[in-house]
Target: TetR family transcriptional regulator
Amino acid sequence: MHRKGANGNKSRQRLLDAAAEEFALYGFYQTKISSIVARAGMTQPAFYLHFESKDAIFAELVDVFQSQLSELVENSRIKPGKAVHEVKSEVQAALVSWFRFLSGNPALTKVGFFHSRESVHFKARLADMLKEKMALERAAGYLRTDADLGFAAEALIGIIERLTLTRLLPGRDDPVHLAEQTRLLLFDGLLANDG
Model:
């Protein structure tokens, strides 16, 4: 089904990019194959050289998004033996990479993180991954023993989800600032220091 060669790969990518834009703007049900190919500057027969259906291209976009974000989360583990300031720095670096990914292709983020039917389950899987990582970090002595790690992981996903929707994608804030503020909230809280 897939066309071979550099031109075929470029055409396929143009269709994926156009589909992400259309799905992000209009949702799955309102998006038509005709609007995808028009945005891509291609024809419907060209679409069917690369994808069986609208469902197939949507599923691929969701899979690409979820695979890439899962890999980022999976690769963000703090190794034992770090000082507290190093832990804070590594957490902030991980958050920056996540927010940069989410802002790197806003249409794909809207499709994979918000519009797909699987997004709720995907975010639950991300929270489970974070909980497992936090358990390792607790064992290394970085996290409090009385903290509910499941709650913390769900809260972090909720923070990322909301900030992505209200600040990152609209361009109201950048990944570095969002990561810094999230890290500050998680590690230092909101209370003023008594001195």
User: Anything to note?
Assistant: The chain has two domains: 5-52, 59-188. The chain has a mean pLDDT of 93. The chain has nine helices and no strands. The CA atoms of residues 22 and 31 lie 6 Å apart.
